[in-house]
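INFO  loader      accepted 1 record
INFO  loader      residues=321
INFO  predictor   begin
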Amino acid sequence: MDQSGAQSAMRQLAEQKKVVERWRGLEKKVADITEALPLAEEDTSIQEEIESEVAAVVARLDEMELEMAFSGEYDARSAILALHAGAGGTESQDWAEMLVRMYLRWAERRGYKAEILDTSPGEEAGIKSATVAVSGDYAYGYLKSEHGVHRLVRLSPFDADHARHTSFVLIEVMPEAEADFDAEIAPDDLKIDVFRSSGPGGQHMQKTSTAVRLTHLPTGLVVTCQSERSQHQNKDIALKILQARLLKLELAKKAEERARLKGKRIAAGWGSQIRSYVLHPYKMVKDHRTGYQTSDTEAVLNGDLDGFITAYLRSIIGEEE
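INFO  predictor   done
INFO  writer      dumping tokens
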């Protein structure tokens, strides 16, 4: 077996060990509850404790059932989100910034580490685009549910007449690539350009060519990074994003082939509106793929996405095999 194959096998083995450890931990928890049952008949406080433990076991079982949906090769990995504001100027750019905040809050609730890799600020408010890394086990498995167009309907805070506006943001979700195995890029396949940052950042960023643009010549993929003060840092981040995009491109090709064999149509890009967030004339967030909805829009925008993610994962169990 070559080195790349060995690395892949070791990674898969490590992931399987984690799965076994989780099931064994749950098995031990059930055994402990069973042993304590006789004592609960005589002590109400123990009975209450057991009821709490049983509820925790049931919740954990539900979560582990969801992991059946993680049948994809890269589902156990960290994720990279790329957000792109649609037509609509300041409205859509503000919506993109709201979504970045939403995903940062969601990551915090789940115990994941989230980092903004790059942003392109809007002219008046918000952001034109942003790239966010979410690190942790199964981050991609969960966040793949967010890939698509997100639609916002609200009274505009930027319109003097407070008219109702509809805004769109496209979200791409990519598994983090392992550079030495998934997306090794030949130096001759890469064109590197450096230029002055166009965004805010003070005198240093305006006078020094720190921004980096990478072009992958075989595919035409272009990645730009200008958030950091160092050209070297921007290049490293751009390369990380490019590797993830190349891996996502490979996954898309495989998905299209599976869809072709099954006779299914795959919607992609701006045509795949997945969720609407309506703040006026009523409050409702609805996922168009699963029908799951809630009127608690404030909670959703503060990162409470688990209901939507769970509904989506349950709907795709078995589809990716």
